[in-house]
Design brief:
single chain; alpha+beta; six-stranded antiparallel sheet; five-stranded antiparallel sheet; 20 helices; 11 strands; about 55% helix; about 15% strand; extended
């Protein structure tokens, strides 16, 4: 019950949003300062928490008709889904701590004691985030899945401890032709608790007779027949019933895990075949197209990343003219900044607050996945996956599969790079190769010096060395030779 006389009275979500919106700039500054003061967290953790805090404020304060009409749970769920590959309980704890300290610092000179209610609203949000995040992590499709081989083995091993001679599991997923699994042992083997062994096929009329003399236990769509009916005492029967109730949950989780693992292995096996089939960057378009089919997306686009200039360029994808229009600086886009730090895919349910509006319009984006392509902590680029304007959902397992796919593509690209050798008997240093690449991109000496943290004089020395090694008379011939010899692509 709300009491107007109590300064720490409950506030509504709308009141909290308005307060955040009015104080967003100051609060963001306090957050950035507070993060730097937390000396017990690493630079990488500071960067991630800074991004999470900024995106959290953004989703609660930025103006959008859909968001304005959304309740707190809906907005928090969208935020968690977008950053599920980055979030964990460790970061959530730090985020809550930083927000609490930053808000307290903002209000320390406030004369309106009622404003302190906003600090007490944070634990409510923290609790909701924790519950929603936990639900997302634990979401598993439950069904009756005793057909899993490992689940069957575990169940039969348990029932071997009881005086049971024959055991039948009947799956009723298909009512016209149920699936039957059967095991058995002799009466003497039952006394000695010898393990069950697969039972020979039985005629249907004999099977019906055995069923009539068996104890029937049902769990979901599975019927468990224990023969003979009189084998178990009432206490033993009750023990088995209780076990089956708990076992059903385990079997469902285990079967879902096996199903997910099998799907992952099939996709990765097919991807390996695609990578073997093609070689070189000229075939990379076929690999990206193969990812569309393997991962069941309508569109897959690859963007190259240039680390020394923090730029990206659209390279491969359907409607190539649109793809190649998409380029620029990664910063200050915090979504991509965090992706580069964590090296994890990001699922964006609604791209309005993460992607430039012109990009959303150009590609008719709704939901999308952005997945970095890496090799040994080096980001080579990323690919985006979407359903061409259709909104979709994505599970944690889907993101983990996409991450593994991108890692294999990164390995393929790096292996190809290592296999490219110039026709002359010379090698370029890493620094020379960096200068050559920037030269091909049209940068002048001053800009190259800024990117590589070198003086213009040193850049000139590197260009002279390249001209000598490549037998070139000028900068244009250096670039031309670089392409011809496979040093540039």
């Amino acid at each position: 019950m709300r009491s107007d006389s109590f300064p720490y009275s409950d506030i509504s979500f709308e009141e909290f949003k308005i307060f955040l919106k009015q104080n967003k700039t100051k609060l963001q500054m306090n957050i950035n300062v507070q993060i730097r003061l937390e000396t017990n967290i690493s630079k990488e953790e500071q960067s991630i928490v800074e991004f999470l805090a900024s995106s959290f404020l953004g989703i609660l304060t930025e103006t959008d008709q859909i968001k304005t009409q959304s309740d707190l749970d809906t907005l928090l769920t969208a935020w968690i889904q977008t950053y599920s590959m980055t979030l964990d309980y460790h970061y959530l704890h730090i985020l809550h701590l930083i927000l609490e300290k930053s808000l307290a610092n903002l209000l320390k000179n406030s004369t309106d004691v009622k404003e302190y209610s906003y600090i007490f609203y944070l634990p409510i949000i923290a609790s909701k985030i924790s519950n929603l995040f936990s639900n997302l992590k634990n979401t598993i499709i439950t069904s009756d899945d005793f057909h899993s081989h490992s689940s069957q083995s575990l169940l039969s091993s348990y029932l071997e401890l009881f005086p049971i001679q024959q055991l039948f599991l009947v799956q009723h997923h298909n009512k016209t032709s149920p699936i039957t699994f059967r095991w058995g042992r002799t009466e003497q083997e039952t006394i000695q608790k010898i393990p069950f062994y697969p039972f020979a096929d039985i005629k249907s009329d004999q099977l019906n007779e055995i069923y009539e003399q068996s104890l029937l236990l049902k769990v979901g769509e599975t019927s468990i027949y224990i023969y003979p009916k009189t084998a178990l005492e009432m206490e033993q029967e009750e023990t088995i019933r209780n076990y089956l109730l708990r076992f059903n949950d385990f079997a469902s989780i285990n079967a879902q895990f096996e199903k997910t693992l099998l799907k992952k292995l099939k996709v990765l096996d097919q991807l390996t075949k695609v990578l073997i089939r093609y070689s070189g960057r000229n075939d990379f378009i076929n690999i990206i197209k193969g990812c569309e089919e393997l991962l069941n997306f309508k569109r897959c686009v690859f963007y190259a990343y240039i680390p020394w200039s923090s730029e990206f360029k659209g390279v491969i994808g359907a409607e190539l003219s649109k793809v190649q229009k998409t380029q620029g600086y990664v910063y200050p886009n915090q979504l991509f900044h965090t992706m580069l730090i964590t090296k994890k895919p990001v699922f964006i349910k609604n791209p309005v607050h993460s992607v430039k509006s012109e990009t959303i319009e150009l590609f008719s984006l709704s939901s999308l996945i952005v997945a970095p392509i890496c090799y040994n902590e080096e980001v080579l680029g990323w690919m985006t996956l979407d359903q061409v304007g259709q909104e979709f959902d994505c599970t944690q397992e889907d993101l983990q599969l996409i991450e593994e796919v991108c890692n294999r593509i990164g390995l393929f690209l790096k292996n190809f790079d290592h296999n490219v050798s110039p026709s002359n008997n010379f090698e370029l240093t890493d620094r020379e190769l960096s200068v050559l690449t920037l030269l091909a991109d049209g940068y002048d000496n001053k800009k190259m010096g800024e990117f590589l943290h070198l003086s213009e004089h040193t850049i000139r020395d590197y260009i002279s060395s390249l001209m000598l090694k490549l037998k070139a008379k000028n900068r244009t011939q250096v670039v031309s030779a670089g392409f011809r010899l496979g040093l540039l692509t």
